[in-house]
């Protein structure tokens, strides 16, 4: 096979010897079809020895022109081949893949270390094969530092965009690719979930005027003098000043009247008779009234802050619960529990991303003149897209018919509503009794 700068995509096929003739015919047709694809330069096929004597092995090494051709080859050719192989031969044949690259090791220039300065591994090329650190130790410029920090935001072929674009536009495809082993080009799922959830809560609940109030001038503080309220007549009666009637009544009486209007918390032990014993021992009338007084003191502001602070934890708790529901809905799928959990991690990451984009869009419409109809249509489209996204993702990942997917879709929705209500209710209760 001729040398070339691009990667090599290696397919290893293992099948029973009884189906050797059929497998070889299919493999030959697959190779001929693959060579017609743009970016596929060559293919070298050869057998290999399998430990089980009842099986045979075949290897196909496809030479590709570039990494872009590799991505297209994986998405269009290999994915179709895997599906066709599974449908035609079932468990009789299995396929695995590896990506190979030419070893460009050469003698290192003078001054370049032969071992990695980070982990000590012998260097064979520009980067360490163990930890990935660059072989040359040098100072970088400020521009290079900024480029390294923001490179993923502006490079369309970076892992950031290769993850977020299919996450939004191809429901379930990211999960399917990850489960089939195509993982290196995507962000790790749990890292992506944590980053998107953090961005969502910052965008949704961060108020610049409140958090950075030092940099904002209060309206009326610089130019509006305080009103003159010292004017009264000889008998001490209120007078009109600048169109405002100033009352000099007894402030203590007014305060007492306000207190009389607030009934406060009126609970006794009989009100908690329907509670279970373990809960009644903890939620005593005195404790409930104490919480009520704290919440009333600041109009629930501290309670809201506690709920928002604990919401990410509540949603993380919800994930394994819903994964159990999916495990029960697909008992014959032969999928591990963690695979169902991965599906939900990607789903929640998508929800965080979509809600963040909605909030940013609404805030942008407040700054520029956007027709109200456009805003309404945008919101309606995003609300409709969420259930459609879930249905398509379930079909793509689990591969069942539309009818069966719809039945399980309804069950999952009701389970999700019940689970979300439960964990948020517990979050609210824990927040209330912790202020």
Task: Describe the fold and architecture.
A hairpin with a 6-residue loop joins strand 2 (40-48) and strand 3. The protein has 2 domains: 8-100, Alpha-Beta Plaits (2-Layer Sandwich); 156-211 and 264-435, no CATH class. Helix 11 packs across helix 12 (337-367). It has helices spanning 20-35, 67-89, 142-154, 159-169, 173-179, 189-205, 208-211, 251-261, 277-280, 285-297, 301-329, 337-367, 372-398, 402-432, and strands at residues 8-16, 40-48, 55-64, 93-100, 240-241, 244-245. The chain has 14 helices and 6 strands. The strands form 2 sheets. The protein has a 4-stranded antiparallel β-sheet with strand order 2-3-1-4, with helices on one face. Strands 5-6 form a two-stranded antiparallel sheet.
- How many helices? 14
Largest sheet features? 4 strands, antiparallel
What is the element string, with H for helices and E for strands? EHEEHEHHHHHEEHHHHHHH
Helix content: 40-55%
Major sheet strand order: 2-3-1-4
What separation lies between the terminal Cα atoms?
71 Å
Strand content: 5-15%
Structural class: alpha+beta
Cα radius of gyration in angstroms:
33 Å
Number of strands: 6
User: Could you report the average pLDDT, rounded to the nearest whole number?
Assistant: 78
**Shape estimate:** globular
Number of domains: 2
Question: Would you identify the regions where 5 or more consecutive residues have pLDDT less than 50?
Answer: 104-108, 248-261
């Amino acid at each position: 096979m001729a040398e070339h700068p691009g990667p090599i995509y290696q397919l290893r096929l293992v099948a029973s010897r009884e189906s050797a003739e059929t497998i070889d015919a299919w493999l030959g047709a697959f190779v001929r079809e693959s060579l017609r694809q743009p970016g596929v330069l060559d293919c070298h096929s050869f057998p290999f020895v399998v430990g089980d004597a009842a099986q045979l092995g075949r290897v196909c090494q496809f030479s590709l022109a570039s990494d872009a051709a590799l991505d297209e080859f994986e998405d269009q050719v290999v994915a179709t081949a895997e599906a066709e192989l599974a449908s035609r031969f079932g468990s009789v044949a299995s396929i695995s893949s590896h990506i190979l690259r030419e070893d460009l090791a050469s003698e290192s220039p003078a001054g370049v270390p032969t071992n990695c300065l980070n982990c000590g591994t012998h260097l064979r090329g520009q980067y360490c094969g163990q930890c990935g650190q660059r072989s040359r130790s040098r100072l970088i410029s400020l521009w290079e530092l900024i480029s390294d920090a923001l490179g993923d935001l502006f490079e369309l072929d970076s892992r950031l965009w290769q993850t977020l674009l299919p996450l939004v536009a191809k429901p379930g495809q990211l999960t399917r690719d990850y489960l089939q082993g195509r993982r290196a080009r995507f962000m790790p799922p749990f890292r992506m979930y944590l980053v998107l959830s953090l961005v969502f809560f910052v965008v949704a609940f961060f108020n610049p005027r409140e958090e950075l109030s030092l940099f904002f001038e209060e309206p009326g503080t610089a130019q509006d003098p305080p009103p003159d309220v010292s004017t009264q007549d000889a008998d001490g009666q209120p007078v009109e000043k600048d169109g405002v009637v100033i009352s000099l009544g007894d402030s203590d009486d007014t305060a007492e009247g306000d207190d009389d209007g607030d009934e406060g918390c009126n609970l006794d032990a009989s009100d908690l008779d329907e509670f279970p014993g373990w809960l009644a021992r903890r939620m005593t009338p005195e404790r409930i009234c104490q919480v009520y007084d704290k919440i009333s003191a600041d109009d629930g502001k501290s309670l809201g802050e506690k709920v928002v602070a604990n919401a990410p934890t509540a949603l993380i708790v919800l994930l394994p619960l819903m994964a159990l529901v999916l495990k029960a809905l697909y008992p014959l799928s032969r999928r591990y529990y963690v695979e169902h959990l991965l599906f939900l991690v990607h789903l929640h990451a998508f929800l965080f991303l979509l809600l963040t984009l909605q909030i940013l869009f609404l805030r942008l419409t407040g700054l520029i003149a956007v027709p109200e109809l456009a805003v309404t249509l945008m919101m309606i489209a995003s609300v409709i897209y969420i259930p459609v996204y879930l249905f398509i993702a379930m079909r793509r990942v689990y591969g069942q018919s539309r009818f069966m997917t719809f039945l399980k879709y309804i069950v999952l929705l009701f389970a999700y509503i019940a689970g979300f209500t439960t964990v948020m209710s517990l979050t609210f209760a824990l927040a209330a009794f912790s202020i």
